[in-house]
Amino acid sequence: MYISKIANNFLIIIVFILSITSCTKQQDNILGSDTQSNICIYLDGSDLKYNTDIPIAGFQFNHNGCVTGVSGGDAASNNFTLSSSETAVLGFSFSGSTIPVGSGTLISLEGDISLDCMSQFVFSDSEGGAIDVEISDTPCTTLSLMTWNIENFPKSGLATIEHVSRIIKEYNPDIIALQEMPDDIDDESVTLLRNELPEYNIILGNSSFATLGFLYKENSLLEYVGYFNMVDEIDIDEINGLEVGYVFVRDPLGLHMKWHGEDIYIINNHFKCCGDNIIESGMLYECDEDEKRYIEASDCTSNCSSGDCFSTFDENYRRFLSSKVIQQQYSNTDMKVIFLGDLNDEITDEDEQNVFIDLLEDDSFTFADMGIAEGLSDYWSYPSYPSHIDHILLTSNLNNSFNQFQSHIYVPTIDLDFMNWEQYDFLVSDHRPVILNLAY
Fold it and tell me: What is the fold of 3-136?
C-alpha cells in the first residue's frame, strides 16, 4: 500500500543523485536554457510509446488500478528496474543507464488499459531534472530539422569535420540544411563527413561558392522523394526588374520528402550578406579598390583612381526582394513548405527597414523563431555581432503542427563546450545552429 510513496521517494533520490553531475551545466540554466526537454508519450494498444530528444533516466506515473503488470520495451532493454502497484508504475536504473534519444516502446502494460486511467507522468533526465509529461492520444513523433551555416566548411580541416559530426550526432536531427559547403560532392571533406555520419544521405546545390546542402535520414515515417532548384521551379523570373537568380545570389535548394505519407518541402536559403540596415532600391556604383559606393557613376570614376567601377545593388534591397519572391510565390499555397537558412538579417527590425516585411505581414507565413529573435541575445544564432539572422519560416498550413506542445525551437549554445567563442569560431563556425522539432 506504500509503493506509491516509495516510488516517489525513489525518483526523488534518482533526481538528487543525477543532479550532482549537473553542476558544470549551470551556465545553461541561467535566465533560461538553450534546449527545451521534449518527451512525448502516447498509448498504442497496451504499449506505452515515446519520442524523446533527451536521454531518459527514470519515469513514474499514477493509475486508477487499471495496470496489473508492466514489462519489456526499451526500459527493460536498457536494464531499468520496473515495478507496479495498485496506484503507480515506476521505472529506473540502479546502474545509471538511460534510454537514449529516439522513439520506440517504453513499456508494455497489462490490465484494462485506457488513456484516461493514467495520470501524473514524471520523467527524469540524465542531469537530474524532473520533467512533467502529458500523455497524448496520437503518435507524437516529431520531425527534427536543423539549419546551420558551417562557415567555409571545413574551416579547420579534420578538427572541423570531427566537431561538426559530433554535434550532429548529439542532436540527431532528421534533416539538416547546411550553408557554406564545398561545391563538389566528391570533395574529400564531404567524403569524410559522410563516413562519420553513415546514417545520413547528402545533397549539394549548384553554387560555385558557399554551396547549400542537405543531410537527411529516412525512416518508416519519412521518405525521400527528390530535390530541386527553387529558382527553376517558381513562376517568377524577375522581381522589380532584377533577375531572381541575381537577387538570391545562391539558388535556394529544395528537398521534397513525404512525412506520414504527406508531401513536405524544405527549402534551404543563404541570402546576400552585409549592408548598412538601410534598404536602398536604386542602382549603386562601387569601386573595387576600396569598396566605397556612389550614387552616380561619375563620382565613382573620379574617386576610383587605381581601380574599376561596377554597378551593383544594395545588399539589404536584395534580401528584401528575396523575401518578396518567396511571399509572392508561396502565399496561400496548399503546399507544406519550410524555408530555413542563413537569411543574414533580423526579423525584429523596424518595419521601414525590415527586409522580411512582406512575409511578416502575410498570414500565410509564420517565423517559427520569432520568440528567439525577441528574446535574450545569449540564445541568438550569431552572437559575435550579436544578432539572430538564421531563421525558420513555415507556411501557415503547418501552424497546427507548430502549435502542438511537442513542437519547440531553440538555438543550442554548442560554443559553451569550447574554451571560448573564439575557439569555437576557429574550429567550427561563426554561427550556431537553429533546431526545430515539429510535431505531426
Answer: Immunoglobulin-like (2.60.40)
